[in-house]
């Protein structure tokens, strides 16, 4: 019954995914419509000006293909986060997004790093590892679904493709794993079975030997009918 209440369907868990997706598409539309170039607002490692990208990079995309490829996994993973991990969802998204950008700013190559891919890897890592760590059967099932859908993403935390910010992917992946450990006891966790003693257990001693409690016979005292003959009974 507790799981039914916890996993109760609510339209509110779709709010953040929809707002985030609309935001990045609107920003990209403005960039194209008015001939802007927001790439310079991405993360540029180890420079003061480039540090602003830690906060802005997750909303900037280079082209329509880049934006579209991030949109579907963003919606799926954000929805999973806010439905199954709503107790920590905002912390994972906000603080996880910051640390993903910050680590990228520290370790990445000298180039502008843009895109919501870091958030995608953050959510992928957090949702997958949280299910494995918590061992709740529904969360484990979710982890298996996520790894089935997006397991191939793991290769892109390595420098195997030119022009791709594998550093941002790696930063998001590590941050998600760290947050899964930190928040492992928040929200849904597998409950340990609590043994309860029953009447049947009382029939055995501490060594497991059958030892039912002794029943003592109570000797009945004869009733003196003459002593009660003079008592009045009132109904």
Task: Provide structural commentary.
- The protein has 8 helices and no strands.
- The protein is elongated and about 95 Å long.
- By secondary structure, the chain is mainly α.
- The protein has one domain (2-182): Rhomboid-like (Rhomboid-like fold, Up-down Bundle).
- The two termini are 52 Å apart.
- The longest helix is centred in the N-terminal third of the chain and has 21 residues, at 64-84.
How many angstroms separate the termini? Answer: 52 Å
Using the coordinates above, name the CATH class.
Mainly Alpha
Q: Number of domains in the coordinates?
A: 1
Order of helices and strands: HHHHHHHH
Which architecture does the CATH hierarchy give at level 2? Up-down Bundle
Task: Profile the largest sheet.
Answer: none
Multimerization status? single chain
Radius of gyration: 31 Å
Short précis:
This protein is an all-alpha fold.
Topology:
Blueprint: H1 2-6, H2 15-33, H3 53-56, H4 64-84, H5 89-107, H6 117-134, H7 137-150, H8 166-182
What characteristics describe this protein?
Rhomboid family intramembrane serine protease; hydrolase; protease; transmembrane helix; Peptidase_S54_rhomboid_dom
């Amino acid at each position: 019954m507790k799981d039914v209440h916890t996993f109760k369907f609510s339209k509110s868990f779709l709010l953040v995914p929809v707002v985030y997706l609309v935001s990045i598409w609107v920003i990209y539309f403005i960039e194209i419509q008015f001939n802007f170039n927001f790439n310079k607002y991405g993360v540029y490692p180890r420079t003061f000006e480039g540090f602003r990208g830690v906060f802005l990079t997750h909303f900037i995309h280079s082209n329509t293909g880049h934006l579209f490829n991030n949109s579907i996994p963003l919606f799926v993973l954000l929805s999973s986060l806010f439905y199954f991990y709503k107790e920590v969802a905002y912390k994972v998204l906000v603080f996880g997004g910051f640390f993903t950008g910050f680590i990228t700013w520290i370790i990445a190559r000298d180039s502008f790093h843009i895109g919501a891919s870091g958030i995608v890897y953050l959510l992928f890592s957090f949702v997958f590892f949280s299910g494995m760590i918590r061992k709740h059967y529904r969360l484990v099932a979710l982890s298996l679904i996520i790894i089935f859908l997006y397991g191939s993403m793991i290769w892109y935390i390595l420098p195997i493709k030119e022009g791709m910010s594998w550093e941002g992917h790696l930063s998001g992946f590590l941050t998600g794993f760290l947050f899964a450990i930190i928040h492992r006891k928040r929200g849904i966790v597998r409950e340990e079975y609590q043994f309860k003693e029953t009447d049947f257990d009382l029939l055995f001693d501490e060594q497991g030997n059958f030892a039912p409690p002794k029943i003592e016979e109570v000797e009945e005292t004869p009733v003196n009918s003459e002593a009660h003959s003079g008592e009045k009974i009132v109904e």
